Amino acid sequence: MKFEYDVIVVGAGHAGCEAAVAAARLGVSTLLITPDLNRVAQMSCNPAVGGIAKGQIVREIDALGGWMGIVADKTAIQFRMLNRKKGPAVWSPRVQSDRTRFSDEWRRILDSTQGLELLQDTVTRLIIKPSDGGDKPYVIGGVQTALGMSFTAKKVILTAGTFLGGLMHFGKRQIAGGRIAEPSSEGLTEQLAAIGFETGRMKTGTPARISGKSIDFSLCERQDGEDPNPAEGPEAALPPRRDPHKFSYLPEVNRELKVRGCYITHTSPEVHQVLNDNLADSPLYNGQIKSIGPRYCPSIETKIVTFADKDNHQLFLEPEGETTDEYYINGFSSSLPWEVQLEALQKIPALRDVHFYRPGYAIEYDYFPPTQLTHDLQTRLVDGLYFAGQVNGTTGYEEAAAQGLMAGINAARSCRGETPIVLRRDQAYIGVLIDDLVTKGVDEPYRMFTSRAEYRILLRQDDADMRLTPIGYEIGLADEHRYAVMNRKRELRDSLIEFLEKEKVAASEDINVWLENHATSSLTAGTRMADLLRRPQLSLAMLTEISPRLCKRVGKLPYDLRDEILESVEILVKYEGYIRRERELADKMVRLEGVRLSPDFDYDSVKALSIEARQKLSRQRPQTLGEASRISGVSPADVSILMMILGR
What we know:
Layout: E1 4-10, H1 14-25, E2 30-34, E3 48-50, H2 54-64, H3 68-74, E4 76-82, E5 92-97, H4 99-112, E6 116-120, E7 123-130, E8 138-145, E9 150-158, E10 167-170, E11 173-176, H5 188-194, E12 200-206, E13 209-211, E14 221-223, E15 262-266, H6 269-277, H7 300-306, E16 314-319, E17 326-330, H8 338-345, E18 356-358, E19 361-367, E20 382-383, E21 385-387, H9 397-415, H10 429-440, H11 464-475, H12 480-502, E22 504-505, H13 509-517, E23 527-528, H14 529-533, H15 540-543, H16 548-556, H17 562-574, H18 576-593, H19 611-620, H20 625-629, H21 636-647
Parallel strand pairs: 1-2, 1-9, 2-6, 8-20, 9-21
Antiparallel strand pairs: 3-5, 4-5, 7-8, 8-9, 10-11, 10-19, 12-19, 13-17, 13-18, 14-15, 15-16, 16-17, 22-23
Helix pairs in contact: 1-9, 2-9, 2-11, 6-8, 11-12, 12-17
């Protein structure tokens, strides 16, 4: 056993797992320490991966060479593409997962990763030493554990989730812990606060888990996922088509578990009455909890108070796995006493005989405002110390995994004397996420939405591989096979687009009848197929009906990439103008990112800047003019003043 490592990762949640595997695969010796190796990558809340904007993040993680997408695919029991009725810029994949198998698959990956060692223990103290002349006052040296072990390291990544000072609330009952049946971690927050870190408290919650045997499904509405497109006609003789409904861009990665349905039911005025009558026992309303919870995932108590005019709220009953009897009540997070939760749920006809596996609860925990980080997720105070996940004030498995991946990459690159990888806002949702955290900070648990990305037409879920796999390949995280798959897909996609731009459809009576039957105008002259495809009424699949040459080309596409290629081609052709315009806007902002700001620039001396701008620029020390422009409180006028000064 060795006690010296390049990188030590503290915590094996979604952030810690991605960080540890990324660092090890980039060739640095890595140690992952967690209190329970049987609970790695736990889905502490709902058993699902992806969703609005989160699905894009998972595809970006996969494109870079991370693992969340692969694990989600292998353990999925239902898939849905959200926002199908809207434009492709906001289409977002989501899967229901088998909670136990998700964790088991991650453990298999951790065990099989060369250069990564695991340890079941609790880190109680960081080894932090005064810096001897560096640009930061302190430098990391390693960690100490509850069992009395000491490990030295060049870099440490803290991914402690909700465990730092974790306190669970079950009504008036309070139990210290980072998750139900798991102890909290004490001491690290106090140690970091003592050397100058700002800390805060946040809150999140989770619903009750119930037995499927106690649910009357006949009183619920069944909600199924999207099934793979069946092979029809000439394709019936081909090998079975792979399931296009997945996260990973690797064609050999597919869903392996049987599909299960979800169910929808609703609360009622009777349910709301029980909850209202007991609000005095809710830690959220009796002063017991003072920290801020996630705005976009409110408790049922918050819903009935905020939306007092609503008679009911939708609840989703989601299975926790392929074979388990356990169900998750999505939409019924609560910190009320278990007796109140039980009484309220029994007022719902489908749940009149409900049996708890465990009640819902709220949890408070420590976090560190992320403006104390630089864009590589390294702390400004301690050289070599990185934060990732909920300790940065975020919420969600996907946001945590993205931060962990980038922290692992940058810690490993720093060990090797290489420059950090910082994704821009026009390159990835991951870039938006980290830039928002570092420049704007958080005043509530941060959750990613498509609306947070100003260039979301460029950040679609269908092309994350084109955007990011070249970066992953260049740094050594995406392997040769993944890079070859991406290049093959690009070549086939571009070839088909070129065909559509050149191939013409002649005006004829038959063609015009066909067009009129599809509610679009007839032709008076020959028209390129690309121009027909730009019509909102027509799709690429429809055009194969009138063009044998197109049908033949589509039929020759490799079946394992066909669906992704066709989807990509259709989006690029239909939205070409919008994509080009947004690219031009993004390029203008990239030019601001190229204007470097000196780390010792005296903002206080620039009296033309607003007082707030001077204070925030002096505290956060942006590295570029683009970064300065996104700091809350720095106005466009302040940016113009800085541009004038730099111009001189």
